[in-house]
Amino acid sequence: MKNLFIAMLLSLGMATDLSAQTFDMTKAQPAYTDALGYGYDVVKLPTKNSANKGFFFSAKVPDGNYKVTVTIGSKKKAGNTVVRAENRRLLLEATPTKKRELKTFSFIVNKRSTRINDKMKVLIKPREKEYLNWDNRLTLEFNGPLPVVTAIKIEPADASVRTIFLCGNSTVVDQNKEPWASWGQMIPRWFDDKVSISNHAESGLTAGTFLAGNRLDKILSMMKKGDYVVCEFGHNDQKERRAGDGAWYNYTHNLKIFIDRVRKAGGEIIFVTPTQRRSFDEAHKHINETHGEYPDAMRFVAKKNNVAVIELHDMTRTFFETLGYEDSKRALVHYPAHTFPGQEKAFADNTHFNTYGAYEVAKMVVMGMKQIGLPVIEHLRADWKDYNPAQPDDWKTFKWYDAPLYENVKPDGN
Fold first, then answer.
1. According to a count of CB atoms within 10 Å of the terminal CB, is the N or C end of the chain lower?
2. Cβ distance 406 to 101 under 8 Å?
């Protein structure tokens, strides 16, 4: 019976090492089903007429970190391939291959479900039920001008891999659909296969609702000693109006809960001050301070408890002011009607980033990690170049290949 099972795996192009799953993408692969546990997913199967438009491929795996090794290119044709995971997490930018040229890359992808234990689960929002982040499988997206994939290998990551857990709101979350994006889904691009990014942020959350939804409990159930927990809150917290709310009571109290629980579990906590909103003064020269006392309250708690702070509030102010009143729209979801499928009205969102803006902000967070001296920066990829928000990348030359998934409703929060 065992030999028959192994023969079946070989015939399907899968590995016989049951601790790893290897897929020969030069052979026909099925559509994903839970019963089968792997296959093309999310959108219809690639065909001869649609193969150049990208595809998704999933494998059913337990929660945890996985080393994903992808071989792109083909003996038969040239290609140019982008690799992303789960909710559009960027792993590899467009990478050309000549005919008969193969290139192999490895990444760490964190997979999770809502389950914490037999009695507890993450209380996700209804919209999150369609996310690729909270299901029972690891999903890869292959995109680009001409995506060509020869092989995929998925195996449990080594125990030495450090995980950076992200906590926050719509400016951090892995946005599920175009044209929305956040820095949390861009930052995996800059780390090698010794670092995992596990993004638990969600649109509309405050520090308090993050805790109430059992999201920190989920993080602590997966965290090991020496991992990082990075928290950016403030956007939505300032809109809470219940008794006891405010920057200097409820907000600081909740931040202290993060500190105490993460440290008790052996993790290292990092604070990130909130990204600026695109709110210029009357002269269209300088950014208005719209977050009230919340950035200072975070700094106060951090100083009192010896927590390192990444000053994203200051860096995004410099970024917007450098781009200027008009070009700063290019970093946010500002698009005329009919730019995207089903978009009947113009987008003019001054809080939520598009892919270019999210890509730039992710670089700011990496620079913040360097400035506070996190050891994990030893695992930045070889092509990393230090970033200055006063000298941002040119939005005109930034290239993103849209996933075939669109959303015309803005994320929760503002």
1. N
2. no
Please report which residue ranges of 250-402 form alpha helices under DSSP H. 252-264, 294-304, 312-327, 355-371
DSSP assigned state of 153: E
C-alpha dihedral (170, 175, 367, 251), degrees to nearest 10: 20
Q: Please, what is the average pLDDT of the chain?
A: 93
pTM above 0.85, yes or no: yes
Mutual angle of helices 294-304 and 252-264, in 10-degree steps: 40
Q: 165 by DSSP, 3-state: which?
A: strand
Whether the predicted pLDDT of 155 surpasses 70: yes
- Coil, helix or strand for 178? strand
Q: What is the distance, to the nearest Å, from the Cα of residue 344 to the centroid of all Cα atoms in its chain?
A: 28
Contact, 111 vs 68, CB < 8 A?
no
DSSP string, 265-303: TT-EEEEEPPPPP--B-TTSSSB---STTHHHHHHHHHH
pLDDT tens per residue across span 249-308? 999 999 999 999 999 999 999 999 999 999 999 999 999 999 999 999 999 999 999 999
Strand-pair partners of 233 = none
Cβ atoms of 237 and 206 within 8 Å: the answer is: yes
Q: Is 306 exposed, middle or buried (0-12, 13-18, 19+ CB in 10 A)?
A: exposed
